[in-house]
Amino acid sequence: MQLLEQAQSLLNFDSQTTFDVNVLDAVINTMYRGQGDAQRQASEVLNVLRDHPDAWTKVDSILEYSKCQETKYYALQILEKAIKTRWKALPKEQCEAIKQYIVSLIISHSQNPELMEREKVYLNKLDIILVQILKHEWPKKWPNFISDIVEASKTSESMCQNNLEILKLLSEEVFDFSSGQMTQAKAKYLKDTMCNEFTKIFQLCEYVVDKSRHPPLLLVTLETLLRFLSWIPLGYIFETNMVNTLIETFFNVPMFRNVTLRCLTEIGIFNKKKSINLSSYCET
Question: Distance from the CA of 167 to the CA of which of 34, 92, 128, 174 falls in 20 to 30 A?
Fold first, then answer.
C-alpha cells in the first residue's frame, strides 16, 4: 500500500514536485509481476498517467533514469500518443526538440550492433515514433529526410539496417495504413512524394546488395524491397537487374529464399497483370 500511495505523486505535475522515476519503475514492476488488488491499482495509476496531457514532458527523464525496459517502453507509448493526438497543438520549438531527441536516440542505438540487438524492441518503438513524426513533418517541414537517411545509411551497416526498417515502416504507413488515418489529400501527397524520392531509396538497396556481405542487413533489404514492390514504378522492376539479382544472388541461399520467393511472386503478379500501371498509380 505504501508504494501505491507514493504512486499518486506521479500524477502531480506541479512544477515544485519531483517526478520519481524509481517509484514509476516499482509501479511498472507491480503491474507486470504483482497480483490481485496491488496489480489492479498499479494498472489504474499507469492508465491515468498515460492519459495526462502533460505526461509526455516526463519522457526524457524516464528514459534517462529508469532501470527497467518495461518502464522505458511505457514512456515511449506516452510520447507516441502525444505525437498522434497533440502534435499540431505543441509549439514549434517543442516539436523540433522532440524530433531531434528521437533521432539522437535512434542513432545512438543503431550505431552499436550489440546494443541494437539487445534493445531491438525499444529501438523498433523509437522507429515507429519517428514515422509518426514524419507523418506530420515530412516532406513540407523536413524535405531532406530521404536524402539524409540514405546518406546516413552508408556510415555503418547496423545503422543502414535500422534505417531500412524505418523506410519500410514509412512505406507501410503511407501505402498500407493511410486509409482512415489521414485525409485523402494528405495520403496522396505522401504517396506522390515517396514515389518521387524512390530513386534514392532504390540506389541505397542496390548499394547494400553490391557492397554488403552482412546477412542480417541483406535480409532487411529484401524485406524492405518486398514492401516497396506493391507501389514502385514498373521500370524499377523490369528495366533494371532486380529480377536477375533476386534469382542469381539470393534465391539459392536458404536464409534469403523465402523472402526472395515472395518478391518474385509479387513481381510475377505484376508481370501477369500488365494492365496494373503502378507508375500511374503513383501519380493519382
Answer: 92
Give the percent of the chain with pLDDT over 70. Answer: 94
Instruction: Return the closest-CA partner of residue 231 out of 278, 268, 275.
Output: 278
Global pTM value: 0.91
Q: Provide φ and ψ at 229, rounded to 5°.
A: -60, -20
Phi, psi of 171 (to 5 degrees): -60, -45
Task: Give the angle 85-89-94 at the CA atoms, nearest 5°.
Answer: 100
Closest CA to 93 of 104, 85, 101: 101
Q: Show the cell assigned to 65.
A: 533514469
pLDDT in tens, 186-232: 999 999 999 999 999 999 999 999 999 999 999 999 999 999 998 99
How far apart, in whole angstroms, are the C-alpha atoms of residue 137 and residue 264? 34
Give residues with Cβ within 8 angstroms of 91, minimum separation 6: none
